[in-house]
């Protein structure tokens, strides 16, 4: 009987030497604030939008969320409670456009896009009981997106934010946890750059920051 508490503790979430593999932000409710600054015209534009996404990208409307995309994450508990890890997201899109007129068919390339999200972080898990706790985490999130348009123009965007999350952890069975995480992605810097292929056309660069605040649901397996 004395061995039972020790065995239960060994199965607890957040103990030293455990890996946690997570699917994060698979369901999200968030508000995005997108700010762009045009120094040449001394103008600032801010767009705000609230997004709800269930197993989907929160990309509707003119204010696209920069950080609230589904991602895979891995964390290692260095000592009891203390974790280090990172989240990773990848995206790619390409296609073709086919036009038919009479007996003539013309196929051209559509715009293509690729993107990367990388979010290193540190955290500390506080388990109130074996199956309930919180796992505050802090770190930084980088998002880079590049688009090659059909006419040859290239557009790129880079975003950088300080990220603070406080997931509530629910462990229904050993080695499986569900998380509900209030989160803030505070935009620090960012920019967009347009590179027209037209001879003599100048590059256009705009300062661009995105801040997200929301609630995200996810799932974690720990070993």
Shape descriptor = elongated
Estimate the mean pLDDT confidence: 85
SS-based class: mainly beta
Largest sheet: 8 strands, antiparallel, barrel
Oligomer: single chain
Instruction: Output the CATH class name.
Output: Mainly Beta
Cα-atom Rg, whole angstroms? 22 Å
What is the CATH topology descriptor?
Answer: Porin
> Approximately how much helix is present in the residues?
under 10%
Please, could you describe this protein's structure?
With 223 residues, this protein is mostly beta strands. It has a single domain (15-95, 106-222), classed as Porin, CATH 2.40.160. Helix content is 4%, strand content 68%. An eight-stranded antiparallel β-barrel has the order 1-3-4-7-10-11-13-14. Strand 13 and strand 14 form a beta hairpin. The model is unreliable at 1-8 (pLDDT under 50).
SSE order and pairing:
Elements: H1 3-10, E1 19-38, E2 43-54, E3 71-77, E4 82-93, E5 96-101, E6 104-109, E7 112-124, E8 126-129, E9 132-134, E10 137-148, E11 154-165, E12 168-173, E13 176-195, E14 204-222
Antiparallel strand pairs: 1-2, 1-3, 1-14, 3-4, 4-7, 5-6, 7-10, 8-9, 9-12, 10-11, 11-13, 12-13, 13-14
Descriptive tags:
223 residues; mainly beta; Porin; eight-stranded antiparallel barrel; two-stranded antiparallel sheet; 1 helix; 14 strands; 4% helix
